[in-house]
Structure prediction request, 335 residues.
Amino acid sequence: MAIAIIFDISEQIDDLVENEAPLKGILWDYYKNFVLFYGNLFSPLLTFLAVIFFTAQLASRTEIVAILSGGISFSRLMWPYFISATILAAGSFYLNNYLVPKANQDRIEFESRYIHTYRRTLNQGVHKQISPGQMIYFDKFNSKSNIGYEFTLEEWDGIELKSKLFANYVKWDSTSQTWSLENYYLRTYEEDGERVEEGKQRDTTFAFTPKEFANRINDIQRMNVNELDDFIEEQRLKGDPNIPFYLIEKHTRNALPFSTYILTIIGVAMSSRKVRGGIGAHIAAGLALAVTYILAMKVSTVYATNAGLDPLYAAWIPNLLYGVLAIYLYSKAPK
Prediction:
């Protein structure tokens, strides 16, 4: 994590200086939570390397041979590893779902204020259900100026369209908490026919605010497991196209701690034999395997967000693949 901080400082130093970030905020709000977030994110891989380093030392000193020759089975030898993995996995589960989201609030707030000040502000083709029976559409929406173009609001009763509001231009007034419509007309469909109302300007209220159209993908990192579940259900109702990203975040929080067990088994099985090259050979092989594990997570995530793969499968496929590998290596290790 110290190395990660050094690389991050070298990348962010220009933004931090240009935006006059306070030293206390850099250390306390950003890097304290940076270490907590990324340390927990990579904890299974860090545990994996620690297991390889420790077990390879035992193997290089022929201690594992002595233990097995003394009548201790390989399964019994694994018990301390399993106990440690359980403690680490439980801690990671708690951090993922409760503590880290709370810490991320300060980190993401700091990033948005002093680092990522250039966020995209123009959203195109916004189409949402804001409440049951209410559908809105913007051709373009500028989340910086809170202005929308080619606005449409539809009111539905089941499959029957009740009204449709059009406006060339709408703007949010934060003082009065209202929307200002320019060049609008409203079609209302009644039993006795269609009624049309139009005008140049009108101030009104809707059941949504500009926050609905902000980029929310990073915001889910601030939510604990209960808040995330409620948020996903709310956005599912509104037809948010980013639902796969939210579900991947949810399922990854549960799949990541479980990978601690899998990587621990693989680490012990790989490094329990004494090989030419010593600890260095074991660590090199472990790093290569860690890289392929990260690659598998990225590939499955891309399939979930772009090819329609179920996010639950995307989060667990790397564990399933490497779980099979762990079982195979575990069965061969005692021999």
